[in-house]
Design brief:
mainly beta; elongated; two-stranded antiparallel ribbon
Length: 70
Amino acid sequence: MAITFTKAVSIAKFLNASNNNVVELSSDSVLDSSKCTISMGGTSIEITPINNVFRYNFKELVKSLINTNN
C-alpha cells in the first residue's frame, strides 16, 4: 500500500498562515479508505475522504500554531 500526494504542500518553504495550504492524498489499497489522521505540533486531526481522495487545508492549523497569542 502506498500513499500518493496528488497535491502536496512544499517541504522547502515555510507555510504562510494567511495562505491556503491544501494537501490532497489517496491510497492505492484495494480497500476503500475511511479516515486519515494528520498530526502536527501536538495536534491531531481526523479527516474522511471524498471519492477516496483526502483533502485538508493546513491554513487554520498553521495559523493557530504560529499565532499563539492571537
